[in-house]
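Supplementary Note 2. Why include the ligand at all?

Several targets in our set were suspected to adopt different conformations when bound, so apo predictions alone were not considered sufficient. For every target with a known small-molecule partner we therefore ran a joint prediction. The input for nicotinamide-adenine-dinucleotide is given below.
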Amino acid sequence: MTEAEKLKIGVIGLGDHAWQSHLLPLREVAEVQVVGVFDPAPRAQERARAAGLFVYDSEAELLASVEAVLVTSPDRFHAASLEAAIAASVHALVEKPLCDSSQDLPRVRAALGEAKQKGLVVSSCHPRRFDPPFLWARTELPALVDRLGPVLDLRFDFFYHKPSKQGLHLGLLLDHANHEIDLVNWLFGATSFNAYKLYDSELRYAACGQRDDGLSFSFFGSRTLERRVYSELLRLRFERGELTIDTERGIATVLDFETGRLEEEACGTTAYAERFLKTNEDFIAACRGGASYLSPEELLINTEIGIALTEDGIYRHQAERP
Ligand SMILES: NC(=O)c1ccc[n+]([C@@H]2O[C@H](COP(=O)([O-])OP(=O)(O)OC[C@H]3O[C@@H](n4cnc5c(N)ncnc54)[C@H](O)[C@@H]3O)[C@@H](O)[C@H]2O)c1
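The joint prediction is reproduced in token form.
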């Protein structure tokens, strides 16, 4: 592929996540040319120049020079950058959440509508969909349902190291509930549901909910550990058994309530590099005409849940009729 044929991509907001989870993986994607970045912080600009990246003076200049953009600035800037990208006819991967207040939601909805009309891709970053333990769970689910009956309840629990920065998000719930509900909908398909906030702070959050198909779910997360780790436990309670997935150990434990038997299987550990590479690859492939792994409806649910629970403590999602 010649340089001219490569997809020209830019970055708005060159912080830690943009480097680690987008620019580093994109080095392995041959059909992409990262043309430059926009970031108002001198430190980020220096870092960009040191890496040989062109630094634009404004977002508008960057958008005029690219076919696709990664919006990796803090949450409160996402909606405006999404609007600007779609107005400039540029595909956009916007970090989660797509906005951080109910005031900005109509702007996001309008931008998604305009993107659809223009045939532009809007994506985001939910790497669990490309992560071995969760792929294992999704693949094994039908056989487990055959054996243990329908899934009645999902519990998701994460325990991470202390955050390296403060004030990036309004709370851990807004930062994370998007990933958790995305996992529920990816495993079981999107449907109508109610969700409720139980607790939220910068270091801990808890929420629960009930889907109209009868599945209940609860999310719990904390960021208080000294050791640097992204550990997660997924528990699925079937009618006649339970599956627990431990992403740090890469072990799936199945307890059969009828026989009392406990079985362990290797399900793979979280593969950081791989899951972000695949998230970026999916966006590039979608920009080239493929189907994005995230639908506009999923993008909206994932953003709305965090905002509604943060602001009102309750969220009702009414699924679109097929
Ligand atoms: N999907 C995931 O798994 C995941 C993981 C971590 C972070 N994130 C998301 O990535 C985003 C950035 O997080 P981070 O940890 O890299 O933060 P960060 O603070 O390290 O980086 C943000 C960068 O944006 C720049 N910036 C500030 N205002 C800007 C503006 N108006 N326009 C352009 N750039 C601006 C800052 O100077 C900084 O360099 C957040 O929205 C966060 O939710 C997603």
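The mean pLDDT is 96. The first strand starts at residue 7 and ends at 12. Comparable summaries for the other entries are listed in the accompanying table.
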